[in-house]
Amino acid sequence: TNNNNNKINDNSSINKTTKKKSKKGKFSKRNAKHWIYVSGLPTNNVTTDDLARYFSKTGVLDLDPETLHPKVKLYRDKSTGKLKGDASICYAHSESVDLALQILDDSP
């Protein structure tokens, strides 16, 4: 869905991630299978709030237990700090991942 800001578009690609993160920390391993990886995002003016709003259309996003914000990770270039155009989003339920892939994914 295109909004007036054109921040997130339907040309983004969504992939279900099944790889568990090796880092121990605030993102629980119990939810490792509820993550999706998104590529093809605009590299400017996209925020974690924008992504959370867009991807919450297909289900409840999992919340970070410390900050109570949705688990959304925007990837940045380490040397420049600029957005790379990809992100990971964590849903609270596996059914939401399947629905997101079905409804929001326009990749071939």
Identify the notable features of this structure and list them briefly.
4 strands; alpha+beta; disordered N terminus; 2 helices; globular; four-stranded antiparallel β-sheet; 108 residues; 20% strand
Overview in brief:
With 108 residues, this protein is α+β, with helices and mostly antiparallel strands. It has helices spanning 48-55, 94-103, and strands spanning 13-16, 35-39, 72-76, 83-90. It contains 2 helices and 4 strands, in the order ββαββα.
Structural account:
The structure is a single chain. The protein has 108 residues and is α+β, with helices and mostly antiparallel strands. It is 17% helix and 20% strand. The protein is built from two helices and four strands, in the order ββαββα. Strand 3 and strand 4 form a beta hairpin.
- Portion of residues within helices: 10-25%
Low-confidence stretches: 1-6, 19-26
Alpha carbon gyration radius: 13 Å
Question: Can you count the helices?
Answer: 2
Strand coverage percent: 15-25%
Largest sheet: 4 strands, antiparallel
Q: Specify the structural class.
A: alpha+beta
User: How are helices and strands ordered from N to C?
Assistant: EEHEEH
Blueprint of the fold:
Blueprint: E1 13-16, E2 35-39, H1 48-55, E3 72-76, E4 83-90, H2 94-103
Antiparallel strand pairs: 1-2, 2-4, 3-4
